[in-house]
Design brief:
- With 432 residues, the protein is α+β, with helices and mostly antiparallel strands.
- It contains 12 helices and 20 strands.
- Strands 6-5-14-15-16-13-18-17 form an 8-stranded mixed sheet. A 6-stranded mixed sheet has the order 8-2-1-12-20-19.
- α1 runs parallel beside α4.
């Protein structure tokens, strides 16, 4: 009897969080895949991110338990907005304390990527990830797709696959080919400076705190447990101002190391006793500057045998802590679509039909400041200075605002808790 030919793999462009989550998902459901990543070696780069309970649920279904996730971060206990005068605007428990069945985690982005990468290599084998291979284009075929790949030495070659899923980020070459008329990157005027500083965690000990006004604020949260000897945790922070953007982004680099003196003057005097912002900023060994950017949504994430995922599909302002979370959810929804429709364009269409429109709406909602819009409401109503927030925005109005955002982001507690697993345990695609 002649053996059946080995099916072509699903090609994944990009070895970030979304790409690795998809590789693990495909392995779980019995679909061969190959990850093509542009960098020659993966390093744990980046700073802090939050993983919402909807993403943590998916990671746990992939076998990452509290011990593994706790090795790269800590469960979040509180989310709070604080006005420029130091008074609370809004605060709520997060994760298990809020009633979710799964925690929310504050983690180091690069360490999460490496955790997923190591799992891919362990489960799929060392050849599952090809480093130094950038996908620069694609061609749809009758029965599959051909990825156009450029190696580090500039040589180009082609790789055949059943499907191509582009998880290649903000500057996705696949998206550019799929939507050649897409507008340029959108910058609304916000500049972020990011760093980490050893410090004593405030409030609950694991609180996400947004302090200031809509256009002039600091965000901070711990991403490690306190050291048993010093009591100091790694505090991830973002300092942000909004400026006139009519001239566009003039710094050239989208991510560059800067000196503290370049921006600390914006936050001098921000000392509340319970938090000394200038001291926190000065405690960072290095600081990086980023413009807060996104892209206008596109009408579809799919072209034949090719699809977009993660930031390639929906790069969004980091105001709702859901960029990385949504990339993980994307991967799981795509895997579920393959269980229903096979490894086919029909699966890509089902994935697109389910996520493209609502997540595109979330991109625009986050462009409108997402949950931080509450600070804008405070600015508009009282100039940002108040003694009793209930006299400015009643509690019922604040709660309703946050409920609407959670529903849009897919993190409404009752809905998420009641939802069945995206991929049932043991589910496999027939024929792989």
């Amino acid at each position: 009897m002649t053996a059946s030919p080995t099916p072509l793999p699903v090609l994944i462009a990009g070895g970030g969080i979304g790409g690795m989550a998809l590789a693990l998902t495909l392995h779980q459901i019995g679909v061969p895949c190959t990850v093509l990543e542009a960098v020659p070696s993966l390093q744990p780069l980046g700073v802090g991110i939050n993983l919402q309970p909807n993403a943590v649920r998916e990671l746990m279904d992939l076998g990452f338990d509290d011990t593994l996730l706790g090795s790269i971060g800590i469960p979040a206990r509180e989310w709070a907005l604080v006005g420029r005068n130091g008074n609370d605007v809004y605060a709520e428990p997060r994760g298990l304390l809020a009633g979710y069945r799964w925690p929310q985690y504050a983690v180091h982005r690069g360490q999460l990527q490496m955790l997923l990468f190591n799992a891919v290599v362990q489960r799929l084998g060392p050849d599952a990830v090809r480093l130094g291979q950038r996908v620069v284009g694609y061609r749809n075929q009758d029965q599959g797709v051909t990825a156009l790949v450029e190696s580090r030495d500039g040589q180009r070659h082609e790789i055949a696959g059943r499907l191509l899923v582009a998880a290649d980020g903000l500057h996705s070459a696949v998206r550019a080919q799929m939507h050649p008329q897409q507008p340029p990157i959108q910058w609304g005027g916000a500049i972020m400076w990011r760093g980490t500083t050893p410090g004593i965690p405030i409030r609950s000990g694991s609180s996400f705190v947004g302090l200031g006004s809509l256009k002039h604020r600091v965000v901070l949260y711990p991403i490690s447990k306190p050291d048993t000897h010093t009591g100091l945790a790694t505090i991830n922070w973002i300092a942000e101002i909004t400026v006139d953007n009519t001239q566009g982004w003039t710094q050239g680099d989208w991510n560059r190391r800067v000196q503290l003196s370049d921006f600390i003057h914006h936050f001098e005097g921000w000392n509340y006793g319970w938090l000394d912002v200038p001291a926190m900023l000065r405690g960072a060994q290095e600081v990086f500057e980023y413009p807060m950017i996104d892209r206008d949504p596109v009408p579809t994430w799919v072209d034949g045998h090719a699809a977009l995922l993660g930031d390639a599909a929906h790069v969004m302002y980091p105001v709702g802590s859901n960029g990385a979370s949504q990339a993980i959810v994307d991967a799981r929804v795509l895997g579920a679509a393959m269980l229903q429709h096979g490894v086919s364009p029909a699966a890509l269409k089902a994935y697109d039909d389910k996520l493209c429109a609502p997540i595109s709406a979330l991109v625009l909602r986050n462009r409108g400041a997402g949950p931080f819009a509450l600070l804008g409401m405070v600015d508009d109503r009282c100039g940002g200075v108040f003694d009793d927030i209930n006299q400015v925005i009643p509690a019922a109005e604040r709660d309703a605002f946050m409920a609407r955002y959670k529903a849009a982001a897919g993190t409404a507690i009752d809905t998420l808790n009641a939802a069945p697993p995206t991929i049932a345990a043991g589910a496999r695609v027939p024929g792989g």
